Amino acid sequence: MDIASNAAHPEAAPAITAPPVIRREDYRPPEWLVPQIALDFRLGIDATHVTAKLSVTRNPAGEGSSTLRLNGDQIAPLAVRVDGEAVNDWRLDGPDLLVALSGEAHEVEVETAMNPAGNSQLMGLYASNGMLCTQCEAEGFRRITFFPDRPDVLSTYSVHMAGDKAQFPILLSNGNCTATGENADGTHWAEWHDPWPKPSYLFALVAGDLVANHAQFITLSGRKVDLNIWVRAGDEQRTQHAMDSLIASMKWDEEAFGREYDLDLFNVVAVSDFNMGAMENKGLNVFNTRYVLAEPETATDADYDGIESVIGHEYFHNWSGNRVTCRDWFQLSLKEGFTVLRDQLFSADMGSEPVKRIEDVRTLRGGQFPEDSGPLAHPIRPDSYQEISNFYTATVYNKGAEVIRMMRTMAGTERFRQGTDLYFDRHDGEAATCEDFVKAIEQGAGLDLTQFRLWYSQAGTPQVAVSLTYEGDVATLTLAQTVPATPGQPDKQPMPIPLRIALYDRDTGTHAGERLIVLDKAEDSFTFEGFARLPVLSINRGFSAPVAIEFERDAEDLVFLAARDDDPFARYEAMQSLVVQHLVAAVGGGLADADRAAGRAAIGKGFAAIIADEALDDLMRGELMMLPTVAYLSEQVLVADPYAIHEEREALKHWLGGELASELKALHDRVSAVSYGRDAAARGARKAKAQALILIASGDAAEGAARAIAQYRAADNMTDRQSALTVLCNLEGPERDEALADFHQRYQGNALVIDKWFQLQASCFHPQVLDHVKALAGHPDFTLSNPNRVRALFMSLALNPKGFHDVSGEGYRLIGDLIRRLDPLNPQTTARFVPHLGRWRRIEPVRAAMMRAELEEIMAQGELSRDVREQVGKSLG
């Protein structure tokens, strides 16, 4: 039935403009379940027809409603049948289809049609460079067909798809392929069946002209699994690292968590137009191309690491997300936080554990800490939302991982594994909750996590004030915790905070062993005997808790730890703290010339020790040479001037580059002689080389430009070429123009590398960076339709303290204009830009007023997506 001509159903007109607030406390089980669904697709780029047959049964846990509610979004039913008979007593309630049913079980059939080529939101079924693909998490399936689109409705899916064989020679869906065939009209078809019940957000379909890198994996029990990574012809040679990462992750999950893969087939498809990094659809993972394609000429070491991590993450979801899924979207961290922890542990085992830990903490501090202290702060298990896409946040993912890591720290590796085994065994095939997970760890590991549950319900980053005193031979450690007020949560209770500590003897430079203490009160003291004088405290070793440590320490102690601490993260943290204390004091105007000189001297001493330490591998050396980011430094003060912080940070880099010029040049010369390789030593050499070059150029622009252009020209890999171009982009001179022109000409047509070309220019500290961004926005290679390209240019600007926080306000206007232009096309990508303006309350008054004004102008626009309206509304308060 054509809804447009159905005068009997006037409710079909769009009605919802202001979405209601969804609350966790209002959860009710579904009234109807869908044990099986059969989908039939007649595929076309401009027109796709879908017939969905739902076998529905009344849910005994429901409230007995005789109405079946099927969610929809921008689709209309062409026909509705119940038990094979056309019915007219259906109606639309806003976007949802309501069908009256009696009895206990029925077959409900609904036909829909859509235009994938017109789907710029990239949610549901959409077209990408001539192929069709889907993205259904969180609520994209309702854009394909009417369905109870909620994660606690688990169904077994059978899929039949047919399309033009020349246009779509490859037809993929979830599970195993059960049959294929050809039709006389030039079309062909394939049937797929997934035997494992899953929620609708895990449905996937891909149709296109693709080729595959094939491999096979033998599981622990001896089953053969066929592996395929599908890409466009010509890209298959760039998929081997992704395939190696997939095989490694399958083997690792069997060994580390006892989880074996459960289908005969595992497919990965690379898509160039994708809102996120990747999606864990059961048996058919859909990936952004940036997390699949890699070769030394086009991918940096960070790109290789990202592919390994994301491939592992999506594969690990097969159990932590697919076999055990979420009851509702408030439980998102149940699958995401746990899976982030699993991919972090996997990457640590595949490479350098200490370097990986530092990288993960840097990510947390750069993204989640600011989120926790801003207007969008929320617990890892939120209480309410208007648009669920807005809760795919650093808090849910990264802080969620840290919370589970704390359980692992308190339980120990073996007992934590007992808890996860219990969780998987108990809830396999179910839609579970965060509470189900905590109970399983509690019982399996033998922990009392009653108070620990506060980590799931309280937002904010705990602040731990530390003091260490000494009397007789006893050192007394006093800790006091506060959890700052956040929106909707003015008062907080103390939470258990596990802290790994060590107390160093100042004379011997050794400690008696690491200890784990748990601060579970507002304030507590711990005593330690046997010290001839005040020891040096190493605290929160390994970043055992996601907290901010407030501890005024002498520069001498920090230099001691930076040079001698046997915990790599603690050594890194000491160096960071030394810099943070100096820069915060400098920006605050609290440093006299003598104090500034003393602070710089201490930092210089620490850097010199790092450069000279022959026992230090270059991967760690590169990490230790990185200064704290402006975002992290801004978190150390109540009201920040990010531009002033940036300038002070640059001044320190200039001083270090001059003071340590000979040491840095010697380091750059040494590591430049190391040949390219993927081994840790070669990767470390490139990392140290990049950091040395940055400081050399900061101290002496001419020397930096000469070394950078020489490195660029000689580079036989993208890591060296990009690090050289990063330095050149910050400078003025012919070398900059030469390298940028060469880079674009060399890689023209390679979308992922051209993304880097945009990103490097928008993130640099060049005096004309804003003019460059505006020019790049009009470049023929720029498009608003590709999320990767939008992020490469404009997210790089939003993260650039010099450009974004320019006193003219032009950086804010550029992001505001982007939000207004992009929102009608792709709300999900657009919403990610709002929090950067939403930080106005933590910024000095002049810039804060301009940021707030930009938000008010966006809100006044009227027609905003749910995603953006919610973010802007909360940011304005």
Strand and helix layout:
Elements: E1 22-23, E2 32-42, E3 48-58, E4 67-70, E5 79-82, E6 85-86, E7 90-93, E8 96-100, E9 105-114, E10 124-128, E11 131-135, E12 155-164, E13 170-173, E14 176-182, E15 187-198, E16 205-208, E17 211-218, E18 224-231, H1 240-257, E19 265-271, E20 278-279, E21 284-288, H2 301-316, E22 324-326, H3 332-350, H4 353-372, E23 384-385, H5 394-411, H6 413-427, E24 430-432, H7 434-445, H8 454-457, E25 463-471, E26 474-482, E27 497-504, E28 515-519, E29 523-529, E30 536-539, E31 548-550, H9 555-564, H10 568-587, H11 593-612, H12 618-624, H13 630-634, H14 642-659, H15 661-672, H16 680-699, H17 701-714, H18 718-729, H19 734-747, H20 751-763, H21 769-777, H22 787-798, H23 801-804, H24 810-822, H25 827-831, H26 834-837, H27 845-859, H28 866-876
Helix pairs in contact: 1-2, 2-3, 3-4, 3-5, 4-5, 5-6, 6-7, 9-10, 9-11, 10-11, 10-14, 11-14, 12-16, 14-16, 15-16, 16-17, 16-18, 17-18, 19-20, 20-21, 20-22, 24-27, 27-28
Largest sheet: 8 strands, mixed
Write out the strand line-up for the largest beta sheet, numbering strands in chain order: 6-5-9-3-2-12-15-14
Shape: globular
Low-confidence stretches: 1-16
Rg estimate, integer Å: 28 Å
- The number of helical elements comes to 28
The SS-based structural class is alpha+beta
Query: What percent of residues are in strands?
Result: 15-25%
Average pLDDT works out at: 96
Secondary structure tally: strands? 31
End-to-end CA span: 45 Å
Determine the fraction of residues in helical runs and give it as a percent range: 40-55%
